[in-house]
Amino acid sequence: MNACRKKGRLSFCIRAEIEPKNRSGVNSLQYDPCTDRLFTAGRDSIIRVWNTKKSSDPLVHTMEHHADWVTDIVLCCGGKNLISASNDTTVKVWNATKGFCMSTLGTHKDYVRVLAYAQHREEVASAGLDGAIFLWDIRTLTALTPTNNTVETRPLTTNDESTYSLAMNPSGTVIVAGGPYKRIWVWDPRSRSKPFDLRSHTDSIRALAVRPNGEEIISGSSDGTIKIWSLGMQRCTDTIRTHSESVFTLQVNNNWSTVYSAGKDRKIWATDLHNPGHSTLIGEETDPVLKLLLHEGRSQSFLWSATCNTNVSRWLIKHNPTGMCSRSIVDDEQYSYHSENNTDMDHTSIDKSLPMSKCSEFVSNSIPVSLPSNAHNNNNSSDALSDVSSHDPDHSPLSIDNNNNNNNNNNNNNNNNNNNNNEQHNSSLSSKPDFVIKGGSPIVQFHICPEKRFILTKDNEGIVAVYDVLKASMSECLGVVSFEEEIKKREKLIYVPNWFIVDLKCGMPIIHLDEGDCLSAYINASDAGLLNEFNDPGYCYDTKINYGFVLLRSLFTRRLTASSNNTNPSNNGNNMDNARNDLNTDQILEIPGHTPIILRYFSHYLNN
């Protein structure tokens, strides 16, 4: 029998006071055309705001209140407010202009993965791994205050299925959700009636978009396909097979004539919804693409792309002066005519009478590109949430074949229904972004030194550094040196129990101290290098030091001192000195005042 009890964990991040660059991948993007500001949701737990008119030093400010990956963001209320979701299980409401957190919603019980926004109703939906989808009134959320911070809500659904993707139309009449169970759930949030599901994908649903009139949706999946669905008929009407691997993100233009897609194969494609066999390669990233954001301006349109690396890129999209026609809906009669001899609803083109678009928003002067031979028959996909959480930073981009072939003949076999479709894939000549927000260098490797105080790290540019866990700071930057040689230099014949855990998921060292384990490490003061750190002359080389005791005392004395300074500003210069000279606080080390500390509890199972 397994017994469960709550176990405490204290975590802190070793970082600079100001982190002006993304230190890990970027999960989500939002753009304010009125101020030309781009908002990025980082895997380093930080939301950053960028001035896209400045090519050098574009950072405006950071928004820091989350304790884990920021997974999604929504800019709302005409750009005044921002809603964010995070793996720390919270949804936060921000003042987007001033950058401060207005309120925190702790309704979810697990990672919050996605948000969806109904612009005309000012409503936002949140969903994640706990199986619940909550619908929030943004006006209510922005009215919360420190004294009036209670909001009542009930989930739209409480099934056991995790949600990876979520979308709503602007009027809030349709909400769709997808996850690892290969089906799309569809609700009318106004009536909260029982949902229906759409099935045709063979792997996780990773991206969704709803047509503004609520008649169609588009889905992207880990099976490598993009599907177009009629909600009236509740079935798939077209399948787009442009990608060779998982599709992670979709954007559709305003008149629903072009879908932009990207994913694990790193390629950004634009597909004509009038003729789903016609796709144009906008560009290619160096890492899996996590998010696309389309901005349609009067004179210029562009795509922002965010990937597993720290850079954010902008790709220009040239307009054709004649504009584009909107996609027409396939009616029941047309659908029946084209599918009367086909029991599989996963065919590539339902209505072949639909006209090919007479114009294009794609980059002009395109050249043909050949897709890999497995582009339309890729079954090697994964449901795992971590399928893009790690990557090889030195992995080279896929090569582009510039042969003058106008068509690629791809044989698609759907449940023994063989249809030969000539799909045209064009590649833009200008395959480089016109603007890039350069990111920082995430730490990708670490080694805990034998005395269990220092850790060696290596970032993705090969720079090696030494961090002092007890002081929560970098003690030395060694530059580009051999990581293995530095490990050998620090080898010692000493045993100290493990008392902390190192986590690099945010691109910076995060130290976890678990209840009980953090107080298990005793070491001589000389071996720990602490003889000259304390003011007590009674310490000698064989004085026993408890690492966890020293670190916790240093962390919380700083907090208490900061609180005292806020209460009594006149004592601001003397409180830390007094604390260090106090007999009860003689084992105190200087820790940077900006060090974020996170306290949480998690379930710990014991075998009886």
From TrEMBL:
Protein's UniProt keywords contain Protein biosynthesis: no
Annotated stretches, region: Disordered: 370-432
Composition skew (Low complexity), residue ranges: 370-388, 396-422
Entry-linked Pfam families: WD40 (PF00400)
Keywords: Repeat, WD repeat
Keyword Cell cycle: no
Any one GO BP annotation for this protein: double-strand break repair via homologous recombination
CDD domains assigned: WD40
Residue stretches of each WD repeat: 19-60, 63-104, 105-146, 156-188, 198-239
GO molecular function terms attached to this record: ubiquitin binding
Domain of life assignment: Eukaryota
Protein name as it appears in the record: WD repeat-containing protein 48 homolog
Native species: Schistosoma rodhaini
